[in-house]
Structures are given as structure tokens and as C-alpha cells.
Automatic annotation (TrEMBL):
CDD domains with a match to the protein in the record: PBP1_ABC_sugar_binding-like (cd06311)
Signal peptide: 1-35
Domain of life (superkingdom): Bacteria
Listed name of the protein: ABC transporter substrate-binding protein
Keywords for this protein: Signal
The family this protein is said to belong to: Belongs to the bacterial solute-binding protein 2 family.
Residue spans of biased composition, Low complexity class: 40-51
Length: 355
């Protein structure tokens, strides 16, 4: 989730997982359940026995391209994708050098097309700018699994898999709205540390947050955009703290930049408000468990990369998802955004990525 318009900026982001991770785990299980069928051996309507998908099949080569791993969430994307691919003896894993340069990523994807891989998993620096090369792959008969940042042309991908940006805002809005309502706070000062304001994903998060707060009779008092970095999170939060002598709640879109957000809060000595994060990083979860200003984070799972590899393998081998009736893998899969609090943090902590 970083700036998709500037090659020098990291990309994407959003946030991890907790529930989303569970959602991704559920997806993985649905794709490749190892459980034996309980129907006496009757074949599933999808054409394969439930549980057969994980068994070695036709050897396939899966290409992978993503932005540089210079951000905790993005590093987890690359790690989860590779780890999943290595689970299969029938997958030849062919990643290209990660980069934040649009032209370099286009060239890297073109090299995978020339190599005639059987499927491509692509998390583009910018969906619009890589749309044409993804369409080139599809036209060449190579199914593209579009991860996270969507290509605008549906003919440019076989399946899209990603997180729910609007849902992140909804989850954060419900946590903050309900807590303030239950505490009888009227006219609360609610501030928001966004990611990059020009990105659609940031706009979707803010819209979900705004829409949900309205259901409680609240609104966002002030919001400022950061850049998904520790430094930008620190600077923006310092500005917000200076501008508002009293704050009731703060929502930060991204747990990686949240390291800077928390540092600014600690330096200010302010503790009259509570904070909700976004993504589900391990360090954010440890802060939640410890107790303090950070009370919750909403998920945006990098585990989606592992699920994308599973889907790429199934599609390349002509298989569907074992737990679905349909014969083919769905065209679009959106993971849930759930809320991690002190009450459930121990469940999600093993799934957190390191910022």
C-alpha cells in the first residue's frame, strides 16, 4: 500500500491479519483440505475428491512478482508466498527480483511471460501501470492471479485476491464508535492517521471509517496523510497532537507506520485517548497485550500471498476449490478484516508479521 504513483516509494499496504489471517487460513483449507471425505468416498461435485488437491499433480511453474520488501507487510508477502510454494513438490517456484520501479517490474513480468510459466502471481506496484503487461500474460494463455492492488481491466487477471480496505475502516469505526458511545462521550475528538491520501485503498479505508462512525452519530475531527513509514507516522502524529490539546480516539491505518505513531505519543506524554491500528503486525499485537494507548488493530493479512500461490497452482493444474460446488476457482476473493483486542490477541499473535 504505498505510493503507487512514485516508483521510489514502497508499495501497498495495509495491514495484517488476525481475523484476516484466519480467513486466509480458512481459504487455504478450502483450497487444499487434507481431510478425508465423509461421504463414503463419493466424489465432490467439483470433480475432485475433497482432500485430493494437496496431492502431487501435474508439474507447474509459477512466476511471482511483487514490490521490494522494504516494509514489514511487504516482506511478509514475499516470505509467505515462497513458503507456500515450497510446500508442493509439483511447483517450480520462479520469483523475479522485487522492485519499486514500475518499468523494472514490467520488464520482470515480461521475462516470466517469455519463460512461459504456467501461472503468474502479481502484486503490482501500480495496478493501472502494470495492467497492460498483465493483459499480455493473459492473452498468452498464462493465468494471472492478481494480488492486493487490482488491475483495472478484468481481462488482465484470472482471479483477484486481496484484503478489504473499506472493511478495515468499518472494523476500526465500530471499535471506536462503540467504546465512545458506551462511555457516554459526546462530541468526541477523533483523529485519523491515513496512509497515502491519493491511493484508492487509503480512500476506501477512510470512507469505511467515516460511514461507520456516522452510525454512532460521530465524525472524524481531523485526518492527515502519512506514507506508510515510521518517519511519516511520527511526523503526522506529532502534528495532530500539537493541533488538538484533547483527543478521544485515534485510528492509524498501518501498523508499520504505527511504530512512529506510538513513538510520537510516548514522546508527548499524552494518554487521554485510545488508539486503533491497522494490519495486524506482531509488534502492534505485543503492544495491545501489554496494555496502553494501543487497544486494538484491524487486520489486512499478508497471508493472502500464500493463498494466491495455492490458487495459482490449482488454476494451472485445472482444479477447483475442493470445498466449493463450482468446478473452477472463483474470479474474486476478498478476505475479512477483523478486530484484534487484548481479549483475543493470543490467538492472533503467532500470525503477526514483524514491522
Amino acid at each position: 500500500m504505498r505510493d503507487q504513483s512514485s516508483p521510489s516509494r514502497p508499495s501497498r499496504r495495509g495491514v495484517l491479519f488476525g481475523g484476516a489471517v484466519v480467513a486466509a487460513g480458512g481459504l487455504a483449507a478450502a483450497c487444499t483440505s487434507n481431510a478425508e471425505p465423509d461421504d463414503g468416498g463419493t466424489a465432490a461435485r467439483g470433480g475432485t475428491l475433497a482432500g485430493d488437491n494437496d496431492k502431487p499433480g501435474k508439474k507447474v511453474t509459477i512466476g511471482f512478482s511483487a514490490p521490494a520488501a522494504d516494509h514489514g507487510w511487504m516482506a511478509a508477502i514475499a516470505k509467505d508466498a515462497e513458503a507456500q510454494a515450497k510446500q508442493y513438490t509439483d511447483v517450480n517456484w520462479k520469483p523475479v527480483e522485487p522492485t519499486n520501479d514500475i518499468n523494472q517490474q514490467i520488464s520482470a513480468v515480461e521475462s516470466l511471460i517469455q519463460a512461459k510459466v504456467n501461472a503468474l502471481v502479481i502484486l503490482p506496484n501500480d495496478g493501472e501501470q502494470l495492467n497492460q503487461v498483465a493483459r499480455k500474460a493473459m492473452d498468452a494463455g498464462i493465468p494471472v492471479i492478481n494480488l492486493d492492488r487490482v488491475f483495472p481491466d478484468k481481462l488482465s487477471y484470472r482471479t483477484w485476491l486481496g484484503g478489504d480496505n473499506y472493511g478495515m475502516g468499518v472494523s476500526a469505526g465500530h471499535y471506536i464508535g462503540k467504546k465512545l458511545k458506551d462511555e457516554g462521550v459526546s462530541n468526541p475528538v477523533i483523529v485519523e492517521v491515513q496512509g497515502i491520501a491519493t491511493l484508492p485503498l487509503t480512500q476506501e479505508r477512510s470512507k469505511g471509517f467515516e460511514d461507520t462512525l456516522k452510525t454512532y452519530g460521530f465524525s472524524v475531527t481531523d485526518k492527515q496523510a502519512a506514507e506508510f513509514t515510521v518517519e511519516s507516522g511520527n511526523e503526522v502524529t506529532s502534528n495532530l497532537l500539537s493541533a488538538h490539546k484533547k483527543i478521544d480516539a485515534l485510528w492509524n491505518h498501518d501498523d508499520d507506520q504505527g511504530v512512529g505513531v506510538l513513538a510520537a505519543i510516548t514522546q508527548s506524554g499524552r494518554n487521554e485517548f485510545f488508539m486503533v491500528g491497522g494490519a495486524g503486525s506482531a509488534n502492534a499485537m505485543r503492544e495491545i497485550k501489554k496494555g496502553g494507548v494501543l487497544e486494538a488493530t484491524v487486520t489486512y493479512p499478508p497471508t493472502m500471498a500464500g493463498s494466491a500461490v495455492k490458487l495459482a497452482r490449482l488454476i494451472a493444474q485445472g482444479k477447483g476449490m475442493a470445498d466449493l460446488v463450482e468446478l473452477q476457482v472463483p474470479q474474486s476473493i476478498t478476505l475479512a478484516s477483523e478486530t484484534i483486542t487484548k481479549a483475543n490477541v493470543d490467538t492472533y499473535l503467532p500470525l503477526g508479521f514483524e514491522s
